[in-house]
Amino acid sequence: MMDMDMASPPGNHAAAEAGETIITSQVDGAQTGIIKIIQLRRPQAKNALSQQMVRELSAVVEDIHQHAYDDDEQDDDQDALAPVRALVLGSAVAGIFCGGADLKERAGQTPSATRGFLAALRHLLTRLAALPVPAVACVAGPALGGGLELALACHLRVFARNAAAGLPETARLAIVPGAGATHRLPRVVGPAHALDLILTGRRVDADEAFRMGLCNRLVPAAGAAGDAIMSPDMLRREALEAGVALARQITAGGPVAVRAALGVLGGAVDALENAAYESVLGTEDRDEALRAFAEKRAPRFVGR
């Protein structure tokens, strides 16, 4: 296994940069360009998506949009920056990928602030899904709600065996997934599986996720030596390593063809989901769900 330390990914790389909520680094390849690596880092909040995290992620994604395939415009300029050819997104926190939106932060927000946060999150995930380079999510531990939507906005997903995925919004929070899951999830797993996960809010483990096509790779392979005794941090590193390996495999191909394939297969339809979310955001059930979450009790829904 390659050394996948939080601030030291495998290969030739620049020094890691740490923001308040994420760590960014990169792997350089002479033939394959730069693989940018983002690791979520909010250990005290299970990597929940806060306003600050959304801002920091957005800044990196926009930078990749600006610098992907830089060499296409630089011709033979040897001093040009190497192009960004892939993004790998994982966690710097053992045992968790992302627990979803930060409900503690949201509980203190006005409806207007909540809509502003949701607009920023939707924009981030739309831009992530529209990257002209492959984005690989490396999930070790739970990916719930907005955390699963973050992984779904990536083109490919690697799950460690301790991964779990779920969308608790409809069943537990009296809303609908509001950041792309209602159209991205059916495209990945099909309408039947998507309806099951959205309406029941149940979690699926890594094996079931792999069987339904929610993830593209499952690590370590079944029966691998040491599989049963791997710690959460070892599994986190294994997933990141596999994500980097998958990115390298893709970036070894023709960059123009990769970009064209992503353009053909990409695209998003957000309007229907946005309208559905707006229809439930101001309901009594939604307010009750937030109170119940803060009070650590089951919600009592009234259907209004």
TrEMBL record:
It holds the Pfam family ECH_1. One of its GO terms (biological process) is fatty acid beta-oxidation. Signal peptide: none annotated. Keywords: Lyase. GO terms for cellular component: mitochondrion. It comes from the Eukaryota. GO terms for molecular function: lyase activity. CDD domains: crotonase-like. Belongs to the enoyl-CoA hydratase/isomerase family. This is Enoyl-CoA hydratase. It comes from Phyllachora maydis.
